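EI: anyone free to look at a 422-residue chain?
SC: sure, send it
EI:
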Amino acid sequence: MRRRILLLLFITLTFKSFSQWSYKTVKSDFDGTYKRAIVTGSGGEYPYKNPYLVVRYGKENGLDIYISDAGYSGCDNRQVFFKFNGDDEKYKSKHVNEGANSDSWFISSLENSSLFELLDKFMKHSYVSVRLSNDCSLKDYRFSLGGSSNAIKNIIPKEILNKGILVATKKKERREIFQEIKKKERNEFNKQQRNIDSISKIIYTITNKLSKLSSIPSLTIKSLNRENMIGEKVKFMIKKYKLDYQNFKRADNSSNSSFLKYEDFSGRMATIIDLVKEDYSGVEYFNYKLELDDNKEIVYLKLSEYENFNYEDIGFVSLLEKARNKYLGKTFWKEKIIDLVEYKISKITFAGVDEEVFGYGAFNVQLETKRYFNRSKGTLLFNSQKPKVISINFSKTYSSVEKNNSYPKEKFFENIFYYLEE
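SC: here you go
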């Protein structure tokens, strides 16, 4: 019976020596007086099957945490990993020293953590798994944390331990807040990137189906033939700066002045009733005879073969009617560098109507945005903008003279807009 009691006592003491933390005060001529808490672990391979996890604290050297009797630590790229039961997070060392005889692994610092945070984990969990890694080997161990709280509290002064854990906790909270912010930023960035990719694909698909209006005969307006103008109705344009109408003269103008006063003709309608061509020194001139619709007054317009009709002077009614018939109420597309916009044509007038005068064309076109694809922001907006008005010309009637290339092609409606062919 006595032998059984002694055997049971031996087994119990042996189990405690390998699973429970102990602590003591150590005096050294070199390191001074310090306190040490220690526990024996398990794992690894012979002869390193029983390593020690040590927490040491002294007034002179402060806090140390290291593992000893766990194998050679002199090789490069030393790393120590901690994994606590019930915690999915892995704690990784940032700097590890090898100790005096290259037989210990001193954790100088941790990535995204601190030594006092590690102590706090020691006191809250049941066990910790430790991986030791360097260029020579990789070993895994497990250490019991039973009794660690009492041992650690007995070697580190209460005020220092509490302050260290409090600072570590606040740092962890700030780190978690920062990580959450960064996570949200990454998620938002990834979401935006997915939107950009999605919008880019839609733009790519639409773009491949778009055709320039100038390439679709049924949607283009033919230029008027300057030699076949008889019967064409025109309007004397409303001008932004109210300048006189050039190259015109009245039938009874004895002074031979080549202009009509703006205040006398602005907004009036006329019909071209005759054309006489003349040749002066090898240059052909076109003399158009116009009759004012309101009082039947006769005026003349004279252009050389090198001159264009001036869109700031007269607007052709037939072009306006054709534009309304072909484009009014229909949807067209316009590319803006990396963006793509779908417009509905809601109104077409002569420039100057509704007091909108821009001076870039004889006609105003009101656009209503149906869809606006913004590739840079990855957004698709519907009806996102107020209706806007652009000044434009239909066909090349106002630049029909091939010898005169001064009029920019981008001012033609057919060269600006695209049509989506389904």
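EI: The helical segments are 2-19, 115-124, 148-155, 158-207, 262-265, 317-327, 413-416.
SC: 👍
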